[in-house]
Known about the structure:
- By secondary structure, the protein is α+β, with helices and mostly antiparallel strands.
- 22% of the residues lie in helices and 34% in strands.
- It starts with a helix and ends in an 11-residue tail after the last helix.
Amino acid sequence: MKVCELYDHVAQLGFEDTLLEYDRHFILSANRALFEVASLRPQTSHVLIHHEPMENMIKNYSFAPVKKMSDIVYTADGAKAFYFEACGYGYCHVERCREVDNVWVWEDCYAPIAISSPGTYMPFRNFITVDSNFVNGEVRLRFTGDYSFYVRNAALYEELLGPNVSDIPAFEPFTSYDVPMMADDFLRLYKPPIVDDGTHAYLRGSEYDIENGKAILLPYDKPGVYKVRYIRKPEAIADSESPATSQDVIDLDEDLCQLLPLLIAAYVWADDEDAKAQYYLSQYQQQAALIRATEAKSEPVQYRSTYGW
Length: 309
C-alpha cells in the first residue's frame, strides 16, 4: 500500500475527501499505528558476527584474578603487545631477554607501569617495543611491588589488529557485540537470537549471554561466524511531502496495511469525535485479534537434537 492510498482510506472513514487540517496529525498517527500493527507479525532480520578472539601466547592463562604475593611472571617468545587488568598498588615490568657480555639478562623495555587502582580493575595495554621497534625474542610481564594486589586477564599477543594502542584487544572471557550499532533497523533481539554458528554447531543458550537486551556476549573459546537474529522496526513514513500525493510504499505486509486506516482513524478523531474513534478502535482490535490467532496457529514446533541436526 502507498502512503497516498492510506491517506485516502483514512479520509473516507471520516467521510471526508481530504484531511487538510489533520495532515500533520496524520503523519504522526500513521507512524504510531505502523509500529503497533507491525507488532502483530514482527519482521526479522539478522547480522553476521565474525567472532575470532586473538590467540593468547600465555598458555596457562586465567580469567580468574591472581593474587600477587611474590612476583607474577608471564613469558612468551615473539610477543608484540600485551593486555592485563590490575587492582591495587604495584608495578608491571615489560622486559626483554638479551645477551650482554655473553650473559643472558632481562631488562626493561621502558619505564615500569605503575598500578594504582584500589578497589577496581583498571585495564592496561601497550606494544612491546624498544625505541619504537618491536622486540625480537623472549619477552615477559613481571608484576612486582611492596604490596599485595590482583592481576587478571593477562595476555601476550603475537598478532596485531592495527597501528594504534587502542587496537590491542582486551583479553576477556566474553566479547561484547552491540547489535544496534550493526543494524540501523534494530528494534529488539529475537528469542533466541542465536541458534548456531556458521558451521552449524549446536550452541546452547548457556554458552552466550545477552546484555541490556541489545548486546550479544560470545565466549572466548567459541570462535565462529554467528548469525544473530533481531526484530526489525518498520521504516517510518516520511514527513517530507504531502501524504495525499506521496507514492512511498509502506514498509508492512499488505494484509496488515489493511488494518492501518482503522487504527489511524481512531487516533485522528480521538479528540474531536470520540464515538467515531472508539468505533474504529473496536474494529481494529477485532481484526488484530484474528491475525494474532492465525499467527499463533501457523507457528511450527521448534526442535533440535543435541547432535546439532
